[in-house]
Amino acid sequence: MGQFFEFIGNHYILVVVFVALLFAFFINEGNQGGPKISTTSLVTLVNRDSALVIDVRETKDFNLGHIAGALNIPYASVDARLGELVSYKDRPLVLVCKMGQHSGTVGKKLKSSGFQDIRRLSGGMSEWSASNLPIVKS
Would the pLDDT of 37 be above 90? Predict the structure, then answer.
């Protein structure tokens, strides 16, 4: 551990550049799948802009509880079901997964397919539930 701190002391410019690049990488990767939004922003988007909520969790998880009006397209079948979303290209799309991990990958796929207004629910359904917002069970 002492050598680690000695390296940092001797090569502080390298360490600063590394940390800056690492930070920029995570910011860039996070934004490629669409910006993250809060639960209150999601409610506002749905009410004002008729945003479509796309839940990318597995169907069994979706049936246990989901956001009202959400469309379930499981993560594994997004490529096969992209055609279902063509009619929604002009609307904002909000991607929801369990904890916010898979929505970024799906967002990248949708952006590469021509969708422009893609956003991700920060924290996913875990955050939605923690905020005591309504859940519909199938």
Answer: yes
Query: 34-130 is classed in which CATH architecture?
Result: 3-Layer(aba) Sandwich (3.40)
Sign of CA dihedral 83, 89, 91, 93: positive
pLDDT digits (tens, 9 = 90+) for 85-111: 999 998 999 999 998 778 888 999 999
Distance, in Å, from the CA atom of 76 to the CA atom of 106, rounded to the nearest integer, reads 10
- Segments making up each domain of the chain, as ranges: 1-32, 34-130
**Separation of alpha carbons 124 and 101, rounded Å:** 8
Residue 52: alpha-carbon gap to chain centroid? 14
- Mean per-residue pLDDT of the chain: 91
With tokens 């002009």, the residue in question is 90
